[in-house]
Specification:
The complex is a heterodimer. By secondary structure, chain A is mainly alpha-helical. Chain A contains eleven helices and no strands. In chain B, α4 crosses α5, α5 packs parallel to α6 and α7 packs across α9. Chain B is globular. The chains are: A mainly alpha, B alpha/beta.
Chain lengths: 264, 253
């Protein structure tokens, strides 16, 4: 009964989603013409698709997408690793957290993308400043989530392990680390989308590779379809990164009670 | 036992001048108003916190840190949601670095004795509250402690499940000859399960009375329930705790 209702809800949701897609595609193709919007402001979908094909064949769209994707993966991996490590360290040492918290807060409030020009000054027009912006921007949500999770682990669980004569390392690996997993994945989800933001800002500021470069190149040429193609591909890159995190989360957190449709 | 307060605030004297001993294989229940420091005693006994004055001894050894002679069980089952039931039961053995095959065998044996073997590969969220508490009991017994410290272990389960759990626990304690300190606020549970009941005063808690339960069937609380003297003992405990008297109805929070 409950499962049946869940199923019909899912079916109706999927149908509505597909209908919305059709409406959106139609509006994208014929909407600008009907509303009298010139193609250099909002080009019809078919023009964007044709431009995408041209860029694929002529402008190395695949190469630029691969560069951006690799930067996103590197920045996300390094940023989350660093964020998790610092999160665990600060979570286990309240004194260190107290000492560092004003600086961490200041860094967290500072808009990370504003560091992009600085990093390019330091490292030139290479992939490294882009990765570094991504590292910086991914770091905080992961660190804050891990820190909070370690801080709020049930004290009775820790005492249970201690009463069984657990060492500090055992308490960490057998209680605190697994208990922090759900919060860490919440941070990783946020981080995976922010990594794309960091990389694209880095590419916009300087360099001649990546989707951010194509974006500013298209802008300079007054090539609106090219800008739309770059935005679309950036969304695909972010989507793939996010999906990878969600799939990993499903595997790692398989023990959590199923909640039916879990959303994204 | 004195808990130091934060700056500017006085600390709390949780218990004072508490002294008692448990004989081998004896089950002693500890009752008292809420906030009287029962759980503090348990923390001292398990070595989690050192008392500000005095000491606890197990098997003649002074308790200064958690040790393998003592295991505790709380009202919360404290099962680890990311572990299967089997791995939860084996948790203490794993912490104590027992060999893998031996701890799996031991966990299976305990699950079988508590009729939970079918659920070995389930996860905690798939079990009912009563079953989870039985798993917690199995985990406590798995490390084969000589003393069990039980802090209101059944107060979160429904009345019928509690009767079954009490019977399981009483039987296991008797068969294995374990010594146990059972903290409870349920006067009937104290009388049903124990050889002796200690009564504590409001905070700072100290022991104001000791009642020996002269009834058979300590391994079978359901049989004890049939006995007329259950009521007499419960009434005696109520009187000692001044339950129903105007002056003492407000428990220290």
């Amino acid at each position: 009964m409950e499962a049946g209702r869940q199923k019909s809800m899912l079916r109706r949701g999927a149908a509505a989603s597909a209908a919305l897609l059709v409406v959106f595609l139609a509006a994208g193709e014929w909407g600008p013409g009907l509303l009298g919007i010139p193609p250099f402001i909002v080009p019809p979908l078919s023009t964007i698709a044709a431009e995408g094909l041209r860029m694929w064949n002529v402008s190395h769209l695949a190469f630029h997408t691969a560069v951006t994707f690799a930067e996103v993966v590197a920045g996300f991996a390094l940023g989350s690793l660093l964020g998790a490590m610092i999160g665990y360290l600060l979570g286990m040492s309240p004194a260190a957290e107290l000492a560092l918290s004003p600086y961490i807060l200041a860094l967290q409030i500072a808009p990370k993308v504003a560091f992009a020009p600085l990093f390019i000054l330091w490292m030139g027009f290479t992939v490294y400043p882009k990765i570094l912006v991504a590292v910086l921007i991914v770091f905080f949500p992961v660190m804050v989530n891990v820190l909070t999770a370690v801080r709020t682990v049930d004290r009775d669980l820790v005492n249970l392990a201690r009463a069984f004569t657990a060492s500090r390392a055992q308490v960490f690996w057998k209680i605190e680390f697994p208990a922090s997993m759900p919060a860490m994945f919440a941070g990783l989800r946020i981080g995976s989308t922010l990594a794309v933001v960091g990389v694209v800002v880095g590419e916009l500021v300087g360099g001649n590779m990546g989707l951010g470069y194509l974006l500013s190149f298209g802008e300079g040429q007054g090539n609106t379809p090219m800008v739309f193609v770059a935005i679309f591909m950036l969304t695909v890159v972010g989507g793939v990164a996010y999906l990878a995190v969600v799939l990993a989360e499903r595997r790692v957190l398989h023990y959590l009670p199923a909640r039916g449709y879990q959303g994204f | 036992m004195h808990f130091p307060g934060d700056a500017g605030r006085p600390g709390i004297l949780a218990i004072r001048e508490v002294s008692f001993a448990l004989a081998d294989g004896e089950v002693v229940a500890l009752i008292g108003p809420s906030g009287c420091g029962k759980s503090t005693l348990l923390n001292i006994g398990s070595g989690l916190y050192a008392p500000s004055e005095g000491a606890a001894f197990v098997d003649g050894e002074r308790v200064t840190a958690p040790n393998q002679h003592v295991a505790f069980m709380l009202q919360k089952d404290l099962l680890l949601p990311w572990r299967t039931i089997l791995d939860n039961v084996a948790f203490g053995l794993e912490i104590q670095r027992r060999p893998g095959a031996a701890r799996i065998a031991r966990a299976h044996e305990l699950l079988a004795s508590l009729q939970l073997d079918d659920f070995a590969n389930h996860y905690p969220h798939q079990l009912s509250g009563g079953m989870r508490q039985r798993v917690a009991l199995a985990r406590t017994l798995a490390v084969d402690p000589s003393v069990l410290l039980l802090d209101e272990p059944f107060s979160a389960v429904d009345a019928q499940t509690r009767m079954v759990l009490q019977r399981d626990l009483a039987r296991t304690l008797k068969q294995a000859g374990k010594t146990a300190l059972l903290i409870t606020h349920d006067l009937a549970e104290a009388v049903l399960m124990a050889d002796r009941v200690l009564v504590m005063s409001p905070r700072p808690g100290h022991i104001i009375d000791e009642i020996r339960i002269e009834m058979p069937h300590r391994d079978d609380p359901i049989a004890r329930r049939q006995q007329a003297r259950l009521g007499e003992y419960a009434a005696m405990l109520m009187q000692r705790l001044h339950i129903g008297e105007a002056a003492a109805v407000e428990p220290a929070a």
